């Protein structure tokens, strides 16, 4: 089949690769001049299938309220009149109770564990080096933060995910450069979780995909998708293309293209920020990936650089940098690894997480023939991309996915289940 993939973030490129590997003729249509230029560009790089977590979690509404007036906060809320924001918030609130959280988290973990397996196979097969590291340490500044993490820790036990609670001394033996002046109540260590450079991986996979025949049409914005009696027509900057099937992997802007087809998905951009700085003192730098649970900010070692990423801003669609968010990132960097880098001269970035209110992505067919989705990976798209790409290739090829798809398709909104 001739298949077009719209979007060349990490999700679109993984999809294109697996489609070509399955024998399809694939074209990727991307409005930027290269792959991984939007959400996939500056993310934290964490691949933690054991800990992928929906944003809608018990205690989160209270956490948002408590942050509203703080100058350094993990969450920024900018109330606007955008009805899509309020619709999203209403749905999100209804997903915060414990039972919904358990269901949503299990759906996300199903994709993330599968994905980590697929990504490992790709890494071994192509001998990829994308600055990956192993081990993920969650830091809790207070006993209250440990308390807040209990539902997630309970699920790790239930799902037999290798992990251990560590005290401050053990946390410092795992990450010896952690600054002793910052209060640390304890940590949670996930030895099998990983981190790595998402845009580097995406560029490597682009080259591999090209070598097996994938065509990339860059600087080409798709304006509309139309289903025909046979196949699908795309209207874009270079005119029109007719293909047998389309996979939409256009991140946050997928909602707009779908709305024009009469498909309403509650996808909303949740803005996040990162700071990337060259390491100046290697002895004082992190060895792998950490997460400051109190501020929901990740610190990741990417080769000879350190990346600090996080914060969630609701209500702003503009990708402009905001001082309050950057202050939070620099505070977290200075609190834990003050001598590793000069954070004032870091490169700062912001991007929009393509977030659904209940957390799991939407994968597979739509009610419209030959139009498929690979969208809504939220804050875990890097961790889910390889598996989601393989799932889409299987479904487009007419096979079953290798994992149970219950709760991962558009049907979950029809049935409100
Ligand atoms: C601060 C931050 C930290 C994060 N940390 C992590 C993390 O540690 N681990 C993790 O797993 N995830 C993380 N994420 C989430 C992750 O980055 C995203 O889930 C993932 O990048 C989404 O990939 P994507 O390919 O769906 O979207 P994108 O990377 O946004 O790609 C979509 C592409 O579609 C293109 N496009 C859109 N519309 C059109 C159109 N009409 N025509 C042509 N092209 C179009 C865009 O130009 C873009 O290139 C983080 C995100 C942020 C913002």
What secondary-structure arrangement, pairings included, does this model have?
Layout: E1 2-6, H1 10-21, E2 25-29, E3 46-47, H2 60-67, E4 75-77, H3 83-94, H4 98-126, E5 133-140, H5 143-148, H6 150-158, E6 164-166, H7 168-174, E7 186-195, H8 198-211, E8 215-217, E9 222-227, E10 232-236, E11 239-243, E12 245-248, H9 254-259, E13 268-278, E14 289-292, E15 297-302, E16 305-314, H10 323-336, E17 347-355, E18 362-365, E19 371-375, H11 381-396, H12 411-414
Parallel strand pairs: 1-2, 1-12, 2-8, 4-16, 5-14, 12-19
Antiparallel strand pairs: 3-7, 5-7, 6-7, 9-10, 10-11, 13-16, 13-17, 14-15, 15-16, 18-19
Flavin-adenine dinucleotide binds next to helix 1, strand 13, strand 17 and helix 11.
Structure, described:
This protein has helices spanning 10-21, 60-67, 83-94, 98-126, 143-148, 150-158, 168-174, 198-211, 254-259, 323-336, 381-396, 411-414; strands spanning 2-6, 25-29, 46-47, 75-77, 133-140, 164-166, 186-195, 215-217, 222-227, 232-236, 239-243, 245-248, 268-278, 289-292, 297-302, 305-314, 347-355, 362-365, 371-375. α1 (10-21) packs parallel to α11 (381-396). β18 (362-365) and β19 form a beta hairpin. Strands 3, 4, 5, 6, 7, 13, 14, 15, 16 and 17 form a ten-stranded mixed β-sheet that branches. It contains twelve helices and 19 strands. It has two domains: 2-40 and 200-265 and 359-414, FAD/NAD(P)-binding domain (3-Layer(bba) Sandwich), CATH 3.50.50; 47-96 and 130-194 and 267-355, D-Amino Acid Oxidase, subunit A, domain 2 (D-Amino Acid Oxidase, Chain A, domain 2). The two termini are 33 Å apart. The relative contact order is 0.22. It is of the alpha/beta class and 417 residues long. Flavin-adenine dinucleotide is lined by residues 6-12, 29-32, 37-40, 43-46, 221-222, 249-251, 253, 272-274, 298, 309, 351, 353-354, 377-383.
């Amino acid at each position: 089949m001739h298949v077009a993939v719209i979007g060349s973030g990490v999700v679109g490129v993984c999809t294109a690769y697996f489609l070509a590997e399955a024998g399809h003729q694939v074209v990727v249509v991307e409005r930027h001049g290269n792959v991984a230029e939007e959400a996939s560009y500056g993310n934290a790089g964490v691949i933690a299938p054991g800990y992928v977590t929906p944003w809608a979690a018990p205690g989160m509404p209270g956490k948002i309220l408590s942050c509203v007036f703080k100058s350094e906060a993990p969450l920024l809320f900018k109330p606007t009149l955008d009805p899509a924001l309020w619709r999203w918030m209403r749905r999100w609130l209804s997903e915060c109770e414990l039972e919904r959280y358990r269901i949503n988290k299990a759906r996300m973990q199903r994709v993330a564990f599968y994905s980590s397996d697929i990504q490992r196979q790709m890494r071994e097969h192509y001998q990829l080096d994308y600055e990956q590291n192993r081990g993920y340490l969650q830091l809790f500044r207070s006993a209250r933060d440990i308390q807040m993490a209990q539902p997630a820790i309970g699920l790790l036990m239930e799902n037999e995910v290798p992990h251990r609670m560590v005290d401050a001394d053990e946390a410092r033996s795992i990450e010896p450069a952690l600054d002793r002046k910052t209060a640390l109540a304890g940590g949670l260590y996930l030895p099998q979780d990983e981190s790595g450079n998402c845009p580097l991986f995406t560029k490597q996979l682009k080259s591999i995909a090209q070598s097996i025949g994938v065509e990339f049409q860059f600087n080409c914005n798709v304006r509309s998708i139309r289903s025909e009696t046979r196949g699908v027509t795309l209207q874009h900057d270079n005119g029109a293309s007719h293909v047998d099937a389309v996979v939409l992997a256009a991140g946050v802007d997928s909602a707009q293209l779908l709305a024009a087809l009469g498909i309403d998905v509650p996808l909303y951009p949740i803005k996040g920020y990162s700071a990337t700085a060259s390491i100046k003192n290697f002895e004082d730098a992190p060895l792998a990936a950490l997460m400051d649970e109190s501020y929901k900010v990740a610190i990741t070692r990417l080769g000879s650089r350190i990346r600090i990423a996080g914060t969630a801003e609701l209500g702003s669609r503009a990708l402009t940098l905001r001082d309050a968010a950057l202050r939070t990132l620099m505070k977290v960097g200075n609190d834990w690894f003050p001598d590793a880098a000069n954070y004032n001269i870091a490169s700062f970035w912001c991007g929009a997480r393509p977030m659904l209110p209940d957390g799991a992505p939407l994968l597979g067919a739509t009610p419209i023939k030959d139009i498929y989705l690979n969208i809504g990976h939220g804050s875990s798209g890097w961790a889910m991309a390889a598996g989601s790409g393989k799932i889409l290739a299987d479904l487009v090829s007419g096979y079953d996915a290798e994992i149970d798809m219950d709760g991962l398709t558009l049907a979950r909104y029809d049935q409100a289940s």
